[in-house]
Amino acid sequence: MPTPSPLSEQLVIVFGGGGFIGNYVVQALLARGARVRIAQRNPEKAWPLKPLANLGQLQFAKVDITDEARVAAALDGADYVVNLVSDFTGDLDALMVDAPGMMARIAHDNGAKGFLQMSGLGADPESDIAYARTKGQGEQRVLAAFPKATILRPSVVFGKDDNFINMFAGMMEHLFVLPVFGGEAQMQIVYVDDVAEAVAVALEDPATHGGKTYELGGPERITMLELNQRIAEAQGRDRRFWPVSDSTSKLFARIPFTPMSMDQYKLLKQGSTVAEGARGFDELGITPRPLGQFLDKWMTRYRKFGRFGLSNERNKERELRGVPAPETGAGAKV
Hints:
Elements: E1 11-15, H1 20-31, E2 35-40, E3 58-62, H2 68-74, E4 80-83, H3 92-109, E5 114-118, H4 130-145, E6 150-154, E7 157-158, H5 165-174, E8 177-181, E9 186-187, E10 190-191, H6 192-204, H7 206-209, E11 213-216, E12 222-223, H8 224-235, E13 240-244, H9 246-254, H10 262-270, H11 281-284, H12 295-298, H13 309-321
Parallel strand pairs: 1-2, 1-4, 2-3, 4-5, 5-6, 6-11, 7-10, 8-13
Antiparallel strand pairs: 9-12
């Protein structure tokens, strides 16, 4: 019989468990037999996870993380705590500095065995970028209150239901020329399941991983321009890309209600790669998976004619080059 996980039957509180990353973190914890309490302002967003849990394994708590009494109630009985709350808007000091520090203090005072704070690459308490600054200061508050907490700093996180790859993919369905902001920016985008696995592994062994910071990046470095080109290729679409200048990008980022804020543009420009010598997936015993392992499959729904679309597009390219379509297999003419 397999050895039970140290998290089995333990109560793990996950703040922000109904979000994109949270959905996968909760699944990783449930698979290890943990009891999970999802705490967030709108816990109903996590209700689709109910069928994945055994009877009594999953709980929900409606919590404003700036309200200490509510946070303390949510943390009642916690063995482990995970904070995934993050945002680019609103009162970032309250959400990403004060609240994590408060959670860590209460968890420590209550005798929790482990605390994990989800931060991000580029976190720096001295940064002039509000998001990076508050992430960095949040790390400091957490470690001051719970010295054996674990900090994870992922790069841009991708998955089949993300708002990153899918945003570009959706644009390519309808636009023949697409703007690319920060086209030369280097990234190590990281698969959401690998990040979730890192959370669970770190919690399983707080004696080893507590008090440490891990930078989580995917196995390859690509630029924003290369990412867009790969998405278009996986869709089987011929698209043109327009690298946008810094001045135009900054102007765009300052316009209200656009998909990119000034903080997001600054973060994009500085890149999102793991620092040389930083602890990462290797120390957690995880092999991160590349985007290419999933992209073709995920782009099926964006192709013209669905799963037959890529073959159709490749046949068109063959015809232009005067190369006949294969007689059998994918792309064969019938």
